[in-house]
From TrEMBL:
This is BAAT/Acyl-CoA thioester hydrolase C-terminal domain-containing protein. It holds the Pfam family Bile_Hydr_Trans. It comes from Cyprinodon variegatus (Sheepshead minnow). InterPro entries: AB_hydrolase_fold, BAAT_C, Thio_Ohase/aa_AcTrfase, Thio_Ohase/BAAT_N. Residues 105-216, 217-245 form the BAAT/Acyl-CoA thioester hydrolase C-terminal domain. It comes from the Eukaryota. Residues 16-58 form the Acyl-CoA thioester hydrolase/bile acid-CoA amino acid N-acetyltransferase domain. GO terms for molecular function: fatty acyl-CoA hydrolase activity.
């Protein structure tokens, strides 16, 4: 019997659909190595491999850990310093917010925002100062405006919460841990950076992980546990957004 590999439910599936990898035609106790490769939009290649042993008797199907090779993808540069990180250039997000204040004024009711890391304080600021933000998902961010003054309608509305660079922790890989460098947002001198979310009319879903290092671009945590948490969170996010956003049935249908 020839060895075959199947992806279920289909080779083509939606982004958030769980997949299974099934291999058939193996001899009893045969070891098989699965390899996966993906290239992101910047041309960075991610690879992974995992070995499995057939345990169901020769010829029967063996179900591998769902999406296992995909979950373990790593680049050749698993830890990148913030200087090389495209996510570190957050000033552009502020400039976009400042340059398009009239567009933000025209936001219709029922807008949902999903944010992570530095994007979280921008999302909270939108909810606090702009009408129409009905739901915000906040993932591993800050409750204060970080690093750069925030302007709205040509005036500064929030001062920046700054960094204490003496608290940067270098690592052997060259990456720098900045988890502890933010000043205390509750200190009196930093009160002007705290985002007044009590002014917001919308709803919030706050998500924080214990081993979060996403500000460092080291990410932290373990791949398998991280993937399980993402699956759990995705369902929670969908329930939250559907509960607080008004979408007609026509708008919720997939366009794929």
């Amino acid at each position: 019997m020839a060895m075959t590999l199947r992806l279920l439910p289909s080779v083509r599936c939606l982004f958030d659909e769980p997949i299974q990898v099934k291999v058939a035609g193996l001899r009893s106790k045969q070891v098989v190595t699965m390899r996966a490769s993906s290239t992101d939009e910047r041309g960075l290649v991610f690879n992974s491999s995992a070995s499995y042993r057939q345990s169901n008797g020769g010829g029967e199907e063996a179900v591998l850990e769902p999406a296992g090779p995909a979950l373990m993808l790593q680049s050749h540069f698993p830890e990148r310093s913030r200087e090389n990180s495209p996510c570190w250039g957050c000033e552009g997000s502020f400039m976009m917010l400042r340059a398009h204040t009239q567009r933000w004024d025209e936001i219709s009711k029922g807008v949902g925002v999903i944010s992570q890391s530095k994007g979280c304080d921008i999302a909270l600021s939108l909810a606090a100062f702009v009408q129409g933000i009905a739901a915000v998902v906040w993932i591993n961010g800050c409750s204060s405006n970080v690093a750069i003054p925030l302007y709205y309608k040509n005036r500064q509305i929030l001062s920046p919460l700054m960094f204490n660079l003496s608290k940067v922790i270098p690592t052997e890989s060259g990456a720098k841990l900045v988890k502890y460098v933010l000043e205390d947002p509750l200190a009196e001198e930093n009160q002007g950076s705290v985002i007044p979310i009590e002014r917001a009319d919308g709803h919030f879903l706050f998500v924080a992980s214990e081993d979060d290092l996403n500000w460092d671009m080291v990410w932290g945590g373990e791949p398998k546990a991280h993937a399980a948490a993402e699956l759990h969170l995705w369902k929670k996010m969908q329930d939250f957004l559907l509960a607080h956003l008004s979408c007609s049935a026509a708008h919720t249908q997939s366009k794929l």
